[in-house]
Amino acid sequence: MNPYIRALFVCTNHTDYKTKPQKTGLWLSEATHFYDELSDRDIPFDVVSPRGGAIPIDQRSLDLKDNTNDKWYNNPMFREKLEKSLSPEEVNAADYKLIYFTGGHGTMWDFPENNHLQELTRRVYENGGMVAAVCHGVSGLLNVQLSDKTWLVAGRQITGFSNMEEKLVRLDEEVPFLLEDALRQKNALYSKGFIPFLPYIEVDERLVTGQNPLSARKVGKKVMEEMYEK
To answer: For residue 4, what pLDDT is reported?
Structure first.
């Protein structure tokens, strides 16, 4: 058990698209693959969500042929944290050295306007902690304002789910906004990989972001490298 570092995973509670009958939620590998990197160092973690309680999982992501998904989805401790997530009001930012926003399309609805999550992120960051996010989870960083009233993402090297990827999965008409466009509007220095859906991350000091689900492990590796090897 690492006594000095505790991580806070942020997950969505939102399940509904505008018109499609299918449900969204957490994209499972974005939690499991990231945590797999932290587990090597025995880093304890908690899960928080905008409303607290059970985290819905996007059924399309429930791929248990993926060994890492299978390992952690069937781990009682991991499952209990997903089924009994904390609400933001129950969380003390001072307890965490790392906050990580997982993805899934649901995050686009319930992350960006959540003032409590923004405040937690600001405090972790200004206390010298790391902020990480992957895929649609990067939407949770859009409206984080620092104490000097600047946007956390402004002028920072950032990635997140691209317009092209959104079009390729045919959900560009379903989401409330396009993440790439929103990041650019906040003056983030947005970049993406040359080929959609391949791992791609950006690192800007204590801010690490990943473009898509396959980037989650790479984000975890980089966060560990930044926290332990510098």
So the answer is: 76
3-state secondary structure string across 190-214:
ECCCCCCCCCCEEEECCEEEECCHH
Please list the active-site residues: 135-136, 166
Q: What share of the chain has pLDDT > 90, as a percent?
A: 97
H or E element at residue 47: strand 45-48
**Does 1 have pLDDT greater than 60?**
no
Distance of CA 60 to the CA centre of its chain: 18
CATH architecture of 7-228: 3-Layer(aba) Sandwich (3.40)
Sign, CA dihedral 35-38-44-47, equals negative
- DSSP 3-state assignment of 132? strand
pLDDT at 17 over 60: yes
**pLDDT exceeds cutoff 60 at 110:** yes
Q: Which region, left, alpha or beta, applies to residue 161 given φ > 0 means left and ψ of -120 to 50 means alpha? A: beta
Beta strands in 63-173 (DSSP E): 98-101, 130-134, 157-158
Q: Which residue has the tokens 């069937």?
A: 74
Mean pLDDT over all residues of the chain? 96
Distance CA 200, CA 182 (A): 19
* 3 vs 13, residue with greater confidence: 13
